[in-house]
Design a protein that fits this description.
Elements lengths: L5 E6 L5 H11 L36 H4 L3 E3 L14 E7 L2 H14 L9 H20 L4 E7 H6 L5 H7 L6 H7 L10
Parallel strand pairs: 1-2, 1-3, 3-4
Helix pairs in contact: 1-7
């Protein structure tokens, strides 16, 4: 074991996690991805996913040994399945709820999937309840440090966030390269 922290980019789906993964990769952190889910109209610069993370609830956490010293994307619903014998640094993305919902709706339409399974009010309630529970759980984890990043504010002023992210992750990242990743033209589902 290398005993290096595992960097995790997390948040709700459609909260800016792919952008953050690309930003950290540009900064110099190796990414743990498999390339199975490729870029499309909803994420033109790629999803930066590793499919095995979805097996955490089933006890498949062997891949975490290879994640040490790297960054991997993990939706917030899976965080409480992380084993406690590793150290984690989590960059947790926050985004306006109405924009998350709009982005998800658009993605479902693009995939010809139903958009009326749950109404927006109920989904907002469920997501907010989940976020409160997750954030409370994170506070109680001695092996986890968290930096919350506001996606909306970062797109407006990345220079205010990139140094903060770099400091949180050890002050070794290439901030100039990171700043070049933030692409406001991809901010298409505004509220």
């Amino acid at each position: 074991m290398t005993n290096q922290p595992i960097t995790i980019v997390s948040g709700l789906p459609r909260s800016g996690t792919s952008m953050m993964m690309k930003l950290l990769e540009a900064g110099g952190i190796p990414v743990l991805i498999d390339g199975i889910r490729t870029a499309d109209d909803d994420n033109p610069k790629g999803y930066y996913e590793f499919e095995r993370v979805k097996q955490l609830p089933d006890g498949d956490d062997a891949w975490l040994a290879d994640a040490q010293g790297k960054v991997v994307k993990l939706i917030s619903a899976l965080l409480h399945h992380l084993p406690s014998h590793y150290t984690y640094r989590i960059v947790f993305m926050r985004r306006r709820m109405e924009e998350i919902l709009r982005s998800q709706q658009k993605m479902l339409v693009n995939r010809d999937e139903s958009t009326d399974k749950v109404d927006d009010a109920e989904l907002t309630f469920l997501f907010q309840k989940h976020l409160l529970k997750t954030e409370a759980w994170l506070i109680d984890q001695p092996n986890i440090e968290v930096l919350y990043v506001d996606y909306n504010q970062m797109l407006l002023d990345p220079t205010g966030f990139v140094p903060q992210i770099n400091e949180f992750l050890g002050s070794t990242l290439d901030e100039t390269a990171m700043l070049q990743v933030v692409d406001p033209t991809l901010y298409r589902n505004r509220a």
